[in-house]
Design a protein that fits this description.
2 copies of one chain form a homodimer.
Chain A lengths: L1 E4 L6 H4 L8 H17 L1 H11 L11 H10 L2 H19 L8 E4 L2 E9 L2 E5 L8 H14 L3 E6 L9 H10 L3 E4 L2 H10 L9 E3 L4 H12 L3 E2 L7 E6 L5 H12 L6 E6 L2 H15 L5 H9 L2 E4 L3 H11 L3 E5 L3 H6 L6 E4 L5 H6 L25 E9 L1 H17 L3 H11 L4
Chain lengths: ~425, ~425
């Protein structure tokens, strides 16, 4: 791991840059796929699935028999693990329900806020080498808790035409019945525009490759809401001299194994600590099954050392990590000073892996510095809030001078008139 | 007003379509402006301001003297009105502060959620024929309440080089000091990328013309958050036979006067009611100062009649109006059945104009059917939520079997290892 010693603030922006990829070629290809599915529906979807997933299908729909068969293939150990994770995710997300009391801003003027579920949502779950069935829980459970009426799920089939059994089991365990075999930009298109088989939804959730991300961006511009701008996963670990280098190295590598485009960062207040952790990381890397992926990711990564703890904190806030592990003696105190992070993990026994699966917190989080302005997925992500106002005649009288003066100053006389006609009539 | 009688559901999508404009030409022009400001900063900004606003400026910065001068120009009546509106907006938005208790999902596993303000936000306020100083309050007050550290405001200057005095007064009254003379796509570019004078922000708020909207979309793709997808304003009024046609017509026209691209819809359960209101609207239209604008908008508009009240409600939810006025005897009962709307106005004495200015609710709302998935601006729009997890050794032991089983099933052995190394050490 490259160690950068006390970089001046003028260099921070450069150090905080995430790995850049040339994605210019993506847009044209993605637009073409979106248009194809928009105009030709299922026919285009099945053709693209045959082309990209090598799976010749009659229909994108996963049948109840397929779900049943998949459930039988999942081991009891994994079923138990999924049940534990689901229970914790449900507990944490159920606690996020908000109540909002009505406010009488002036006598006779009552304002309130109502939460309603988004009626139709679509979840995208990548397949491939690491089938993210955990993401089914992270998206499906809050969608159910929110009360979304129609929840659909798309995941690419293998070349045998089947969706990964753990994904089907997880979906079925949270009560999602409408599951479709579709991957990539074509799956996003199907959910955004609808096909003969796949219903159109109002908001699309879930991670994916660069085509999926680009497709989500493009349909977002056409009025379909999306969860958060997605990018490669990342972690920043802040470690002090008491942190066990074995723990820290394992945390860095658990992030690096996600993908060659992942980034892991280490911040320390002592150069010796950074060196120890760097050596331990190199040593653990050798034993990792996904070593080749992690090695690539480690090339995007570095350790940054600052003598002043305040600089460490400022740098951490500038980086705005998706996952921030604070493995220091004073972790609670440091956490109070963190302004930008997707999810924070405190102390020696809180690895990111716990939050990825089973602590109960959500693992769909803002990457690439978006934590400066965005939140991760929560119960609210599946709801929307409507303000409701009710004004009595007396209330309107109280507000009238202000409304009329402002409307006229904005040259909107029709607005003023909507008040005046009401108050000119004697009841 | 065209009256459509009991349209079948197959026609609803077509009826709910918002006025369409050819915006193909926009993208190229907007991209050019964005790039110009990104590479040349203030120089490009001043050139574009000279070109589009006909204002030759030395600096985009509004000086304290200019603010002072503007404040002296605003009438006492308007100052009092702004103070009333501000007080109500503050009261309603302050009540939106959430507290979130930590949850122990399993013994030793503590998850919580922390709200932090978005550090740097930019507000865009259109100038021109209807200077929306009310929007300064709607965005500035929640930004202040949230605790955003840097709040900047851009608004286009008139050809004399001055920003509208009421906009400067409103900004100053809510405590915004960094105000810049910049409009259109160039203002959005300046806030998104920063210039020598204008600081870069993390999230951009505010309405604007098609160039502003397109620029917000484009910078959003580059990682700058935006408030909500914006579009022309709209209202849907649901009126029954007891509704006073004079009130309803005034409400329809107060929306229509916003712009030629506005849309107003009327839904009734009786054709006679729709006819009465339609006649009254035509009659009031003649007296409106912004008659020409409103006339154009009324061409995009229609009344829809359904004999069944349930159909009325379903249609209203399908339309998903930015503003929904329910002027019926049973308005509270109906409101309970509304699933999609930006803001709801209940009863005879709750005109949209009240919410536009002074009831306390926010007037920055989702248009074009986005209310199906999006909320209007609220206190939360200026904050983000970070999950925080803290796990004890015991807690990790409790979670370990689930995490390890799931990580291995997802082929992420490094994740499993981050747990195993921690529990293999005896404390």
């Amino acid at each position: 791991m490259k160690i950068i010693d006390n970089p001046p603030r003028s260099q921070w922006k450069e150090i905080c840059k995430r790995p850049q990829f040339d994605v210019g070629f993506l847009e044209e290809a993605t637009v073409k796929i979106l248009n194809q599915v928009k105009t030709e529906g299922d026919k285009a979807l099945l053709e693209l699935t045959a082309q990209f997933d090598k799976a010749p299908l009659q229909t994108p729909k996963v049948s109840p028999q397929e779900i049943e068969y998949a459930c039988a293939q999942v081991s009891d150990e994994l079923k138990k693990a999924i049940a534990t994770a689901a229970k914790n995710i449900e507990k944490f997300h159920a606690a996020q329900k908000q109540t909002f009391a009505a406010v009488e801003t002036v006598p006779g003027v009552c304002c309130s806020r109502r939460a309603t579920p988004i009626e139709k949502v679509g979840l995208y779950i990548p397949g491939g080498s690491a089938p993210l069935f955990s993401t089914v829980l992270m998206l499906g459970i809050p969608a159910k808790l929110a009360g979304c009426r129609e929840i659909i799920l798309c995941s690419p089939p293998s070349s045998s035409g089947a969706v990964n059994p753990a994904i089907l089991y997880a979906a079925s365990s949270v009560g999602i019945a409408k599951i479709f075999k579709a991957g990539g930009a074509q799956a996003i298109a199907a959910m955004a525009f609808g096909t003969e088989t796949i219903p159109q939804v109002y908001k699309i959730f879930g991670p994916g490759n660069q085509y999926v991300t680009k497709a989500k961006q493009l349909v977002n511009q056409q009025g379909i809401a999306i969860d958060i701008p997605a990018g490669p996963s990342e972690v920043l670990v802040f470690a002090d001299e008491q942190a066990n280098p074995v723990f820290v190295a394992a945390d860095l590598l658990s992030q690096a194994e996600h993908g060659a485009d992942s980034q892991v960062m280490l911040v320390c207040a002592e150069e010796k600590t950074a060196e120890k952790i760097s050596r331990e990381t190199a040593s653990q890397l050798k034993e990792l099954p996904r070593r080749q992926i992690a090695e690539e990711a480690m090339k995007n990564s570095c350790a940054v050392v600052f003598n002043l703890k305040e600089d460490c904190i400022d740098f951490i806030n500038e980086y705005a990590a998706e996952h921030l592990i604070i493995n220091t003696r004073d972790c609670d105190e440091i956490a109070e000073k963190i302004t930008n992070a997707g999810s924070v993990f405190l102390g020696a026994y809180t690895p990111e892996a716990a939050g990825d699966y089973a602590s109960g917190a959500n693992h769909t989080l803002p990457t690439a510095g978006f934590a400066k302005a965005c939140s991760g997925v929560s119960l609210d992500s599946f709801m929307k809030f409507t303000t409701v106002q009710k004004i009595s005649r007396e209330g309107l009288k109280n507000l009238a001078p202000a409304i009329v003066a402002m409307a006229k100053a904005e040259a909107l006389h029709g607005h003023a008139k909507a008040i005046e006609v009401r108050l000119s009539i004697h009841e």
